[in-house]
Predict the structure.
Amino acid sequence: MPLTGAVAVTVLGSGTSVGVPMIGCSCAVCTSADPRDQRLRPSVLFEFNGCRVLIDVTPDFRQQALRHRFTKLDAVLFTHAHADHILGIDDLRPFNFRQSGPLPIYGSGETLDTIRRVFDYAFRQGQPQGPVPRLECHTLTGQPFELCGATVIPVDLRHGEGSVTGFRVGSVAYLTDHSEIPGASLTLLEDLDILFLDALRYKPHPKHNTVEESLRYVERLKPRQTFFTHISHDLGHARAEQLLPPHVRLAYDGMTVSA
């Protein structure tokens, strides 16, 4: 069946690899009383066609799943295999228990190779079935694929010298950990209602976009609404939003949007 109804996105984490507050830091953002300045590691949940699809499984996944009272997952999409995007994989086991079967996971060949290496105990052949994550790997080819009856479009991104996969479902796209959106990928991001973009901080970074750089992508792509994510402790939520145009906001943990 085609995509029916809205695509809803819940932000499970809007922070960087170290989260906010950062261990040992006493800056104004890390000590802020604004709950929007408390950012777990970056992940979102897409809901469409009655399915729940997780993007990335962070070291904070157990906390995120308990906070949002997850009872099922239909699939996991991985953007890349850096630690802050995969190290919660072991906490997928309760979904295997509840759903009595392996959980489909999707990622590039490089990403899945790293996951198999880091979590080798979950992929050993011939071992008795034990309390390990049961995962069914699907390698992305760069082409759109069907998931839960809807078309998912992988979007190639640059992350410094590495590569990352963004994802588009319907008129919603989620792009994290990028320093460049190649021209061919920009054509996949036209006519969006909601766009999530990496906007780490104001100062340049070799592997992430700054706020200014992401604003230039907003101007080029012209989505109806944009949310910046993967936010460092350089950006206090309230002050940063005062400096943004009305159609660009900062994502925060727990927010839900739909289109």
